[in-house]
């Protein structure tokens, strides 16, 4: 029994570890691809060089992030089977089909046009190249839609019947499966999170270059200023919207997964004038949140939008059906706090913008550099909150996590866990170092756009995403 | 069994086989180029090799994600049995593909500055490709030799897959991909690199042929039904062209290589892969998880298979069309002259 429990724990840890790494890359791709599409579109419309400079600059980053997303995602597409074979057999008729649609409508689209986007500037012309950029961006959004439909179905399952005997989930109504109750809120919340995460990385990059320019006693270059301005607009507009989206998502979760809300809030007894706990340490054994500091009535107000709304407590649910509050109590609070910081950053930049000082305030720029990872940290915290909050179920209320795991032996599980940790930290750590090194170089001005047919190959190499000495550009000279 | 419940799994079996075949061909020459890094030491040649696949490798690898997703959605019984059974080679392959994929991007980016790590990532690209190719062969071998199941679930041990047969299959795939990579480069490059590839292609082809013969004979000894499939009348009429065509294609391959054709060796190698893969399919049909589970045993309900089939019938031709478009955009010889110095 001990080894079974340990194997389950390892299977969960391994899955969480690999998804946790993976989730960062698609989110990065979603935001960055949309940004690239906007940059290229604006360049085509206005003809201003600065947008092309920024496009070429972030395209290099995109190629690295996308590659890391592909390889870490490849792991995910097989890990449902390796770690959660019972879940796969029972829920595969639904979740596997949704995943297949994701591959067919999104992955192929992204990968198929990525080559044109990265290397095709001189081969296909402006219009087609812009189309390729838009298709890659569209692919990232479609991909998010399917994967969140699948994840939301696991959280709030609808449109299924359960086959007697085998316990398989059989699809009964595909529209109900895809448009399940939590799907729209999750999609909106995750989409905005991806845009915000990238906005803060872009803003931090620009801010770093502005600080460097200031140290040299220079004015920051035009691409850097445009980059910063665009990023701060995103923060100003999207961060408050995200608060609204998060609030709507919270109401939806209260309706469909009250145990998750109780665990997030650290509430043990159900009450109708509930305080909002700011801090505390939920204790699953004593059924009490120790050292709780709260604001009276605020809990009811936030969760039900009325002062006397009834808020669930964890004691409403049998002990074996409660999510582990001690994790998500904190991840939820970190996410909200970082969200508030992002809203603050947006407002601050707006005030300075109105005063015409957005490019001059060293304090704002330093804060922007510090804020570089907050979008991603908040995204990961939100993801932990929603996934751990779903426990102890893989399909909410229907299939338990402990009944979903593969019949795996502990030694092979432990062996591969070690391998995953070593390889992921090494590979993706190296990738992060490379990205930071790339972003330390300021954007070049005067990047080449697509030239006319059969232009000189030297120009071809200039549009290469890596654009470093010694790297060759694939460049055809006609059919063999 | 009524019509849909019988035919949907058959149709899906064909689609899945086609997807795996497309993956083997497309990512096969990508992996082959990585394997050939073991022989080609010059940096500029290596850069040309990598540049022949740079715009397309993401798309090539997507076929493997597609294979996994189809297995998961349409044959969840096979997905949930084979992956635990082949857990170690599958995870090893995935980790090797991670190394291959990022090394491919990183080897250039790490070239600037002191303390360059690009030699390390070159090695990572090579090692990742060799290990991933070997694991793919071992996985195929592990499936063909059979997986022990009880009531539709895997019930064997973690290293059941590791046998002399699966090791031979792994080595065969490494050799086969190396040959595919060499022939791809004969087609897509010129000059010294192309000449090197011609030199490598000859022994690789001989070694692969030996492997095909060995695996074929060994396979028929694994289970009695496998042998019957190939020697019983009237099956033999249908299957006899397979070994005959292998001989014919090998002859054309050697002729094309000797006469310095550019694309003939590549096409012949594709043909050899197709025949070998078809041969394996003929052998195990209609089993999805030999020796116990058939396609029908491991299938999703018809409602799942039908829903996925509607989308696939529309989307797969579109995917193939823009994949072909993307290859056409980057057609032609890749040379060092294309580089930026």
Structure overview:
Chain B: GO terms for molecular function: electron transfer activity; oxidoreductase activity, acting on diphenols and related substances as donors, oxygen as acceptor. Chain B: The chain crosses the membrane at residues 6-39, 85-103, 123-145, 165-187, 199-218, 230-254, 266-286, 306-325. Chain B: Keywords: Cell membrane, Membrane, Transmembrane, Transmembrane helix. Chain B: This is Cytochrome d ubiquinol oxidase subunit II. Chain B: Belongs to the cytochrome ubiquinol oxidase subunit 2 family. The complex is a heterodimer of chains A (480) and B (341). Chain A is mainly alpha-helical. Chain A has one domain (4-260, 324-456). Chain A is built from 15 helices and six strands. Chain A has helices spanning 2-46, 49-83, 85-119, 121-124, 126-155, 174-178, 183-215, 222-256, 258-265, 298-304, 325-354, 362-370, 374-388, 410-440, 457-462, and strands at residues 160-162, 169-171, 276-283, 288-295, 393-395, 399-400. Chain A has a two-stranded antiparallel sheet with strand order 1-2. A two-stranded antiparallel sheet of chain A has the order 3-4. Chain A starts with a helix and ends in an 18-residue tail after the last helix. In chain A, 54% of the residues are buried. Chain B is mainly α. Chain B has one domain. Chain B contains 13 helices and four strands. A two-stranded antiparallel ribbon of chain B has the order 1-2. In chain B, strands 3-4 form a two-stranded antiparallel sheet. In chain B, α1 (3-36) packs across α7 (164-188), α7 runs antiparallel to α12 and α11 packs antiparallel against α12. At the A-B interface, α2, α3, α14 and α15 of A face α2, α3, α4, α5 and β2 of B.
């Amino acid at each position: 029994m001990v080894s079974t429990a340990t194997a389950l724990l390892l299977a969960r840890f391994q899955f969480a570890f690999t998804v946790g790494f993976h989730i960062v890359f698609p989110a990065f791709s979603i935001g960055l691809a949309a940004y690239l599409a906007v940059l290229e579109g604006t360049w085509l419309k206005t003809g201003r060089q600065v947008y092309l400079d920024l496009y070429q600059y972030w395209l290099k980053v995109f190629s690295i992030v996308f590659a890391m997303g592909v390889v870490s995602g490849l792991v995910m597409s097989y890990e449902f089977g390796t770690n959660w074979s019972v879940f796969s057999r029972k829920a595969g008729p639904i979740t596997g089909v949704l995943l297949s649609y994701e591959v067919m409508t999104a992955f192929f689209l992204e990968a198929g046009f990525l080559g044109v986007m990265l290397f095709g500037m001189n081969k296909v012309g402006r219009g087609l190249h812009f189309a390729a950029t838009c298709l890659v961006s569209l692919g990232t959004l479609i991909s998010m839609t399917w994967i969140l439909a699948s994840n939301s179905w696991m959280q709030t399952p609808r449109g299924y019947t359960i086959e007697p005997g085998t316990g398989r989930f059989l699809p009964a109504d595909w529209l109900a499966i895809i448009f399940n109750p939590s799907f729209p809120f999750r999609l909106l919340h995750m989409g905005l999170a991806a845009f915000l995460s990238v906005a803060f990385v872009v803003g931090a990059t620009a801010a770093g270059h502005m600080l460097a320019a200031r140290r040299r006693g220079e004015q920051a270059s035009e691409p850097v200023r445009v980059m910063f301005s665009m990023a701060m607009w995103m923060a100003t507009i999207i961060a408050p919207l995200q608060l609204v989206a998060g609030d709507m998502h919270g109401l939806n979760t209260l309706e469909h997964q009250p145990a998750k809300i109780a665990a997030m809030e650290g509430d043990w007894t159900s009450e109708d004038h509930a305080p909002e706990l700011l801090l505390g340490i939920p204790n699953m054994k004593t059924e009490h949140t120790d050292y709780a500091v709260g604001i009276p009535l605020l809990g009811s107000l936030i969760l039900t939008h009325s002062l006397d709304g009834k808020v669930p407590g964890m004691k409403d649910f049998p002990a074996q059906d409660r999510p582990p509050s001690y994790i998500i109590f904190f991840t939820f609070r970190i996410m909200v706090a970082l969200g508030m910081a992002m809203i603050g950053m947006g407002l601050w930049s707006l005030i300075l913008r109105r005063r015409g000082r957005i490019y001059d305030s060293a304090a704002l720029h330093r804060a922007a550099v510090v804020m570089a990872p907050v979008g991603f940290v908040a995204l990961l915290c939100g993801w932990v909150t929603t996934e751990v909050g779903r426990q102890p179920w893989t399909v909410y209320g229907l299939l338990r996590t402990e009944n979903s795991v593969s019949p795996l032996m502990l030694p092979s599980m432990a062996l591969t866990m070690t391998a995953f940790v070593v390889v992921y930290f090494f590979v993706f750590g190296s990738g992060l170092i490379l990205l930071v090194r790339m972003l330390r170089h300021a954007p070049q001005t005067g990047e080449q756009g697509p030239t006319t047919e059969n232009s000189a190959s030297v120009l071809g190499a200039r549009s290469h995403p890596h654009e470093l000495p010694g790297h060759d550009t694939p460049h055809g000279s006609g059919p063999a | 069994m009524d019509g849909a419940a019988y035919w949907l799994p058959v149709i899906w079996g064909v689609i899945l086989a086609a997807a795996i075949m497309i993956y083997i061909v497309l990512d096969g020459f990508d992996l082959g180029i990585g394997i050939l890094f073991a022989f080609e030491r010059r940096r500029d040649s290596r850069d040309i090799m990598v540049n022949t696949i740079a715009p397309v490798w993401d798309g090539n690898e997507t076929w493997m994600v597609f294979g996994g997703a189809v297995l998961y959605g349409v044959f969840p019984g096979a997905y949930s049995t084979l992956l635990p059974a082949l857990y170690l080679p599958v995870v090893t392959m995935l980790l090797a593909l991670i190394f291959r994929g990022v090394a491919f991007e990183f080897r250039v980016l790490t070239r600037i500055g002191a303390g360059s790590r690009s030699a390390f990532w070159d090695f990572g690209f090579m090692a990742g490709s060799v290990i991933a190719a070997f694991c793919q062969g071992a996985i195929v071998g592990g499936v063909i030799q059979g997986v022990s199941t009880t009531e539709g679930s895997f019930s064997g041990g973690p290293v059941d897959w590791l046998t002399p047969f699966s090791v031979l299959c792994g080595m065969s795939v490494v050799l086969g991909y190396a040959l595919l990579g060499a022939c791809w480069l004969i087609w897509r490059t010129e000059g010294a690199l192309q000449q090197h590839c011609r030199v490598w292609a000859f022994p690789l082809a001989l070694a692969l042929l030996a492997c095909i013969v060995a695996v074929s004979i060994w396979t028929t000894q694994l289970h009695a039904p496998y042998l019957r499939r190939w020697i019983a009348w009237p099956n033999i009429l249908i299957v006899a062209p397979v070994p005959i065509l292998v001989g014919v294609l090998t002859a054309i391959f050697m002729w094309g290589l000797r006469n310095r054709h550019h694309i003939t060796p590549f096409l012949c190698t594709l043909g050899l892969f197709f025949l070998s893969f078809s041969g394996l399919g003929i052998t195990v049909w209609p089993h999805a998880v030999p020796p116990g589970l058939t396609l029908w045993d491991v299938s999703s309900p018809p409602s799942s298979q039908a829903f996925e089939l509607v989308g696939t019938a529309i989307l797969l031709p579109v995917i193939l069309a823009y994949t072909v478009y993307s290859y056409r955009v980057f057609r032609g010889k890749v040379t060092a002259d294309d580089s930026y110095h």
